[in-house]
Recover the amino acids of this structure.
């Protein structure tokens, strides 16, 4: 009789142990306000312990595509995503000015590409620092220096050769 119940008990103990481990190891749910902001696409404020307190991140919705030409031929494309560090009261202003802002930032990227900034080792520290500075100056020209305090390059990819 015990020989017949032993496999059933082992299976039940295994299932109970798996369920217990799953419950114990599951990740904590995100705060409810973060879920709502993520669903609406609203910018997420920085956590209180972030180094640049008093700013919020505003992610520009679509990626930037920058064609790289050599002798009037398309040789590759840069795909880039950006986020801005902005003063929280100005988030609505940034949202309304996004088309003008995207236009200005894209022009800076085109100029950078035409100057050869995306050829060779384009992710070198000095090249990326220069690009961030140029993008920050452009964003501050559109929105004002008191609104934008930084530009973050969140994704960058060069497709092609």
């Amino acid at each position: 009789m015990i020989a017949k119940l032993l496999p059933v008990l082992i299976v039940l103990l295994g299932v109970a142990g798996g369920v217990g481990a799953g419950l114990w190891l599951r990740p904590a749910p995100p705060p409810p306000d973060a879920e709502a902001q993520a669903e609406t696409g609203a910018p997420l404020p920085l956590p209180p312990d972030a180094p640049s307190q008093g700013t919020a991140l505003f992610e520009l919705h679509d990626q930037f595509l920058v064609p790289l030409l050599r002798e009037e031929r398309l040789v590759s494309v840069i795909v880039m995503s950006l986020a801005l560090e902005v003063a929280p009261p100005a988030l609505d202003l940034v949202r309304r000015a996004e088309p003008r802002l995207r236009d200005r930032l894209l022009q800076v990227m085109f100029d950078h590409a035409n100057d050869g900034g995306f050829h060779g080792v384009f992710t070198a520290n000095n090249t990326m620092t220069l690009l961030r500075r140029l993008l920050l100056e452009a964003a501050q020209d559109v929105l004002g220096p008191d609104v934008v305090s930084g530009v973050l390059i969140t994704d960058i990819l060069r497709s092609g050769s």
Notes: Helices lie at 2-25, 32-40, 91-96, 98-114, 125-143. The first helix runs from residue 2 to 25. The longest strand covers residues 73-86.
